[in-house]
Design brief:
about 230 residues, alpha+beta, Butyryl-CoA Dehydrogenase, subunit A, domain 3, 5-stranded antiparallel beta sheet, two-stranded parallel sheet, 6 helices
């Protein structure tokens, strides 16, 4: 018989697992890993509302994508164009970034799988007599290691020609040059830290769903068990 068990700790672990997976996925897809040096505004860059020149634009560069401003030949306006600069994996600007993409993709895939499984932990608490929380926690720990490897290798690619075109000639491995780090990089770091927190917290979720009070509720014949 299926028992739906909901506790404060198990629900918090589930929500945090979902948030972490989405945060890492969004960061990976974003082009805001590096913020390039400002492009000086030209005489055409005039704000129609104020009549003054617009602020210098900072192009951004991601692992496989970028955002830049393009000029229209016949119009005195400029649009921001975002999209992948690499049409395939081999066109990613640096071998280090290719490795970063692989490690992050594997870690994110594991996190998304755990986030999907975590939704069903209310009904299924064990698989082949092993706690599903412990299994998921172990997978989250492994995913965190993949994410760390990816984030360590990423700065080694700052010396590639693509990064130099955005960050200036002084950019090199682990040196930003004229660039600064964007929100996507910080989000990936924060998500990695939360991944390990999730891995540790999964043990608390397992303890909460297998407590004596839960067993008492099951023995009383209750199918829906909600505990704080």
């Amino acid at each position: 018989m299926c028992h739906v068990i909901v506790t404060c700790r198990s629900m918090l672990w589930t929500l945090l697992s979902i948030v972490v997976a989405f945060a890492e996925l969004i960061a990976f897809m974003s082009a805001d890993w590096l913020i390039g040096k400002a492009k000086p505004s030209s005489s055409e860059d005039v704000d129609n509302r104020t009549g003054g020149s617009q602020e210098p634009y900072h192009p951004t560069l991601g692992i496989y994508g970028r955002c830049t401003r393009i000029s229209h030949m016949q119009l005195s306006r400029r649009d921001t164009l975002c999209g992948p600069y690499a049409e395939n994996f081999n066109e990613i600007a640096s071998g280090f970034w290719q490795a970063t993409a692989i490690f992050l993709a594997v870690g994110i895939l594991i996190l998304c799988a755990v986030a999907f499984v975590s939704v069903f932990t209310m009904c299924v608490q064990s698989i082949m007599k092993k706690s599903i929380f412990n299994v998921c926690g172990l997978l989250q720990g492994i995913a965190g290691l993949f994410l760390i490897l990816g984030l360590i290798l990423y700065p080694a690619g700052w010396g590639c020609q693509k990064a130099i075109s955005y960050c200036g000639p002084y950019a090199s491995a682990y040196k930003l040059g004229d660039c600064s780090l964007g929100w996507a990089f910080y989000t990936a770091i924060g998500g990695t830290i939360l991944t390990f927190i999730c891995a540790v917290f999964s043990a608390q979720a397992e303890i909460a769903t297998s407590s004596d009070k839960v067993q008492e509720e099951i023995e009383e014949g209750k199918n829906l068990i909600c505990l704080l």
